[in-house]
Amino acid sequence: MANLKLSHIYKVYENGHKAVSDFSIDIADREFIVFVGPSGCGKSTTLRMIAGLESITAGDLFIGDTRVNDMEPKDRDIAMVFQSYALYPHMTVYENMAFGLRNRKMPEEEIKERVLKAAKMLDIEDYLERKPKEMSGGQRQRVALGRALVRDPKVFLLDEPLSNLDAKLRAAMRTEITALHKSLNTTFIYVTHDQVEAMTMGTRIVVMKLGYVQQIDTPMNLYNEPYNKFVAGFIGTPQMNFFDVTLKREHENVVVRFDNGDTITVPYESVSKIHPSYLDGSRKVTFGIRPEHMTVDRDERGLRFVVTNVERLGNETIIYGKLGDHLGEFTMKDEGNSIIAKVVDRDDIEVGDVVYAEPNPSKVHFFDAETEVTLMSKIPPFNTVEVKAAGNGMDLLGSTVAMPKVYADALKGEDSFELVIPPAAIVPGKDFKLPVARVEQVDDKHLAYLRYGEGYIFALVGEDVKAGDDYSFSLLNEKTDLKAGGKELLKAIPDEDTIDGTFYKTEVKEGGERVLHFFYRIGDYSLEAQAEDGYKIKINAIDGDSCYKKTYRYAVDRKSMHLSEGEGLAVEIVDILDYGNVRYAKAKAGDQEFLIEADKDTVLGPAKVAFRSEDVSVYSIESDMKIC
Ligand code: ADP
Fold first, then answer.
1. Nearest-angstrom CA–CA distance, 138 and 176
2. Residues with a CB atom less than 6 Å from ligand 1
3. CA 452 to CA 385: how far, in whole Å?
4. pLDDT tier at 511 (50, 70, 90 boundaries)?
5. Which end of the chain is more exposed for a tag (fewer CB within 10 A), N or C?
6. Residue nearest to atom 13 of ligand 1 (CA)
7. Runs of H (alpha helix) within 83-194
């Protein structure tokens, strides 16, 4: 039994191919995790890195509390099952299963006990004396599972174990492997390109594309709340339908207008997390609806389409069609106008019929047309509010509050502007008060819908806040963007700043032993790195020994950066930014600029800035990887 932690794992193959990028996940003991994605997306590479069959280019892999990056595969207490079974053809089933244990010099008595137990679990007791070639594909895969099982490993890794089996056997083995996982109470990590396998087996699924994790979630959350268009399209058969649309809010409804001029409406309440800037009818949006979330009928409600194919599967019918063009004609050539609906109890629809598909308004999806990210994130990324300058203050959210000096400077006399406020920048306080319409739990956070004007302001609140309350709050001025006339005048201050620098080592004799010390050098400031991090940079497979000649990007947690009386990076304080609630000093070191929290006594002029090496993350500039 074991938990696993993958932290910013990268794999760059020797030919320079980046197969896995920035893969992080915490896997709890006894989870059944599935890696899924199209061929070549990096699933097997990740699994092989966990097994120790492939080196890890950057990042940390923990099994239990032990960092195992450099641990031999045989010492990791992991068993792997491959698609190809990898059985020894000249050995019997018994010998195949016993082989690994014999190599470990386990007493024959115990080997026998383990093999028999595993054979019983897998229902292959009667085949122990057979050779693999005398068995079916399904039986051979059981032997391969058995060989893993006898080792009683902490973690089972399975790489497409069922893909050589026919559909029926695959379905049966899925159930068996799931049952095996339950009875063993062990952590399973399973790789497949088959989304049905992923959905039916995983307690959580990692969806990957081109080496990047797209979403990590439970099967139901992936299905109901896909993070982007890729996940939405990958999970579910037949695939989700996608259409180019625009959205326009009309009071309590939102009108979805298709390219051909057809429209459907959905209640505003079901899409209220979509940022209002998408609801003015001008922005291109991708609309997604699953085939099973539409009804198809002849009454003129919904999307008009002509039926091009009908598949009757008995329990359900899959209807394929084409939407009409701008003239309402069905020109078959048009791309991007196909529609698929999956319905029950409809045996009266035939090819050539003109019918209407009506989406279930509570099952609609919308994605940004360019980034393809959902517009209905569980926690909306930001709110936008209109602000008017009023004397020395500003009017927003129904209150007048002091205008931070930084805002006034950025506005240069402009008196109406917008603040872009992330939910986390709304904190308990006395400046504003809005009624709470609803509170929703999202993972371990509480998202409040604060009623404002025609829509909502989204805030993260404490668990004591309830619908019907009035919520009193303030804004973290430094965490908001300021825009006027479509232009960004001021950006929120991020939680960290990046500073470029180099890396070096010293060797000292300590008690007769040579000990290496590693340092980050930024300008004239040398900061001793955590020894472990220093070694990571040194042995980083990409940079090799040239690590001492390169420039690295150091990302420093802003909370750690402070003005120092003693050692530190020599800077020039060139400006003080007064946000009202906090002040920041703009520091310049050579041509690099960053912000540090300042107090009332901070003055312009030369100063020193220091920070702790624990609060520094190191990025390779060339390969764009987080090294530690
Ligand atoms: P998946 O398991 O998702 O099909 P893999 O992890 O096997 O994908 O491969 C990910 C990418 O890395 C692919 O583009 C593949 O061609 C490449 N790759 C795999 N192994 C090697 C290797 N030994 N050397 C170079 N590139 C490799």
1. 11
2. 13, 15, 17, 19, 37, 39-45
3. 10
4. confident
5. N
6. 40
7. 93-103, 108-122, 137-149, 167-184
Dist. CA 545 → ligand 1 center (Å) = 26
* 349-374 mean pLDDT: 96
Express each pLDDT in 46-87 by its tens digit.
Answer: 999 999 999 999 999 999 999 999 999 989 989 988 877 778
Positive or negative: CA dihedral 620, 625, 626, 628: negative
- pLDDT at residue 194 greater than cutoff 80: yes
Q: Which of 13, 23, 46, 80 to mutate to test the pocket of ligand 1 (most atoms within 8 A of CB)?
A: 13
For residue 277, the Cα-to-chain-centroid distance in whole angstroms is 25
The CATH topology of domain 496-626 is: OB fold (Dihydrolipoamide Acetyltransferase, E2P) (2.40.50)
User: What is the pLDDT, as a whole number, of residue 435?
Assistant: 98
Compute, in angstroms, the gap from residue 621 CA to the centroid of ligand 1: 23
Q: For 166-175, what is each residue's pLDDT tens digit?
A: 888 888 889 9
Atom of ligand 1 nearest to the CA of 39: 4
The predicted pLDDT at position 137 comes to 83
Q: Does domain 241-368 have CATH number 3.40.50.300?
A: no
**Confidence check: pLDDT of 540 > 80:** no
* Residue 67 CA, ligand 1 centroid: distance in Å: 24
Cα 529 from chain centroid? 30
Query: Quick check: do 241-368 and 496-626 share a fold?
Result: yes
> For residue 185, which amino acid is it?
N
In this structure, what token pair is assigned to residue 183?
A: 């009875």
CATH for the 4-228 domain, from 3.40.50.720, 3.40.50.300, 3.40.50.150, 2.40.160.40: 3.40.50.300
> Which is higher by pLDDT, 338 or 328?
338
- Picking from 570, 568, 574, 565, the residue whose alpha carbon sits closest to that of residue 604 is 574
pTM: 0.92
Of the chain, the end-to-end C-alpha distance in Å amounts to 27
Evaluate whether 368 touches 375 at the Cβ level (below 8 Å). Answer: yes
In contact, 626 and 618? CB cutoff 8 Å: yes
**CB contact burial 363-377 (16+ within 10 A = b; e otherwise):** ebbbbbbeebebbbe
SS in 3 state form for 506-571? Answer: EEEEECCEEEEEEEEEECCEEEECCHHHHHHHHHCCCCHHHHHHCCEEEEEEHHHCEECCCCCEEE
Listed by start position, the domains of the chain span: 4-228, 241-368, 383-490, 496-626
Atom 15, ligand 1: which residue's CA is nearest?
A: 40
CA of 46 to the centre of ligand 1 (A): 10
| CA dist 212 → 6, 22, 341, 484 (Å) | 14, 7, 31, 35
Residue nearest to atom 22 of ligand 1 (CA): 13
Predicted confidence (pLDDT) per residue in 116-174, tens digit: 998 988 888 899 999 988 888 888 888 988 988 898 899 999 999 888 888 888 888 89
Instruction: State the closest ligand 1 atom to the C-alpha of 45, by its place in the atom list counted from 1.
Output: 6
